[in-house]
Amino acid sequence: MKLSVYTKRALLGGVLSLLIITSGSLILGSLSGYEAKVLIKNSIAGLNTLCNTIALASATILALLLTLLSLSSGTNSKLKKDHYQHVLVIAKVDTAVFIGAVMGFLLFNLPITESENVPSNWYSSIYYISLGLSSILSASLIVVVLMLYNTVVNIIKIVGLGQKDHPLTIDEE
To answer: What angle do CA 4, 7, 8 make, to 5 degrees?
Structure first.
């Protein structure tokens, strides 16, 4: 599948944000099992809220894509397939983010710190996995929003400003 310039830019933004987000965990250095267990207890509510917010945002974006499609099909300008393929990519990535956020929410609701069957040396790994998962989900939502931003800008130029020579419009000559 060939990625458009807009999608490449959005992915670059997501990778940069992922690097910034994960650099915070590198500042902490290595943790002992007990320190990680305490950090997990303290951060679990925030991680649940983050996953809940990402799931809500991605579900809302998916619903708003239907409005975008309605606006796109109702315009006087004929749009190329590239526009619809870009919207399809947004929908696919957004759906993956939604599924990841719901799965993360379910995982973060497991009472792992209350279990006595988990060896204490596992807590540092669990902590870094939870940091990684939340970082990936956050960066993925940033990618979706950047992709959506590019699509909205194009629609504004075509529909709102009446740009006839836009790369996504079909010449009617």
So the answer is: 85
Q: Which among 40, 71, 5 has a CA at the least distance from the CA of 133?
A: 40
Mean pLDDT for the chain overall: 83
CA quadruple 149, 151, 153, 159: dihedral sign: negative
In angstroms, the Cα distances linking 57 to 36, 61, 95, 98, 166 are 29, 6, 11, 8, 30
Is the whole-model pTM more than 0.85?
no
Strand partners, 79: 169
Each residue's pLDDT tens digit, 128-163: 888 888 889 999 999 999 999 988 888 888 887 777
Phi-psi group of 162: left, alpha or beta (phi > 0 → left; psi -120 to 50 → alpha; rest → beta)? left
